[in-house]
Amino acid sequence: MERLQKVIAQAGVASRRKAEEFITAGRVKVNGKKVTELGVKVNPERDLVEVDGVPLDKEEPVYYLLYKPTGVISTSNDDKGRRTVTELIGSEQRVYPIGRLDYETSGLLLITNDGDFANLLMHPRHKIEKEYVAKVEGIPDRRELKRVEEGIMLEDGKTAPAKAKILSVDKKKQTAIVRLIMHEGRNRQVRRMFEALGHPVKKLKRERYSFLTLGNLQPSEFRPLKPIEVKQLKELAVTKPS
Ligand code: URA
């Protein structure tokens, strides 16, 4: 017997956390009866589980690397009708992004229908390294970059140490291009860190996620991950110390 939210996640419908939301929102039925409590266990072989009236079927897992353009939202659907990353992929499967990039941020985003894989990579314990390039207002000095490296106090706590390096400066326009390497992924974290330093972010792009880069992809383009890449990501997450 398995927990209901785990069975839903394994079927590729949503992450485990989302599946819990589906359950409490009354969108899930087991053998025709609505289940709204979280502790329920089911037999994935024998019990009929439905989400929004659609029976779970075991979908083939799919994994994509997307170059998210700006002006697209990192969810599967948007109540304001904005374009979503899953629309860009146009997959038959019910796919969703692993983590988020802001509407106005571009760059590398992984998309999958494998809930366990998504949970594994998103777990803070696994400290997956991400690399961003930010254009910021003003030119951060050495002391400010050191604050990024040591951690900055934000409203949701101090940030973990990150690496920051100035790549170029435009003295006339008073802007700088900064490379940032970090493993945390709090909501709008890069923007909030530089805002706190007095250097608001004007442009932000994620260039790397662990060993994966954008390569030759152009904005809005995507490619399937190679099986070896999926395997390496799983191993990386499993073997990282806590
Ligand atoms: N940090 C941000 O501020 N925005 C993103 O999209 C990603 C990281």
What does this structure look like?
The chain has seven helices and 17 strands. The two termini are 28 Å apart. The strands form four sheets. Strands 7, 8, 9, 10, 13, 14, 15, 16 and 17 form a nine-stranded mixed beta sheet that branches. Strands 3-2-5-6 form a four-stranded antiparallel beta sheet. The chain has three domains: 54 residues, Structural Genomics Hypothetical 15.5 Kd Protein In mrcA-pckA Intergenic Region, Chain A (Roll); 91 residues, 2-Layer Sandwich (Alpha-Beta Plaits), CATH 3.30.70; 81 residues, Alpha-Beta Plaits (2-Layer Sandwich). The chain is elongated. It has 242 residues and is α+β, with helices and mostly antiparallel strands. Helix 1 packs across helix 2. Bound molecules: uracil (URA).
Summarize the structure.
The chain has 242 residues and is α+β, with helices and mostly antiparallel strands.
User: What's the architecture of the largest domain in CATH terms?
Assistant: 2-Layer Sandwich
Estimated share of beta-strand residues:
25-35%
* Overall 3D form: elongated
Mean pLDDT: 92
Q: Which regions are unreliable across 5 or more consecutive residues at pLDDT < 50?
A: none
Query: How many domains is the backbone divided into?
Result: 3
What profile does the largest beta sheet have? 9 strands, mixed
> What is the CA–CA distance across the termini?
28 Å
User: Helix amount, in percent?
Assistant: 10-25%
Strand element count: 17
CATH homologous superfamily designation of the largest domain? Pseudouridine synthase I, catalytic domain, N-terminal subdomain
Oligomer: single chain
Structural class: alpha+beta
Bound molecules: uracil
Element-level helix/strand string: EHHEEEEEEHEEHEHEEEEHEEEH
Helix run count: 7
The CATH class of the largest domain, by name, is: Alpha Beta
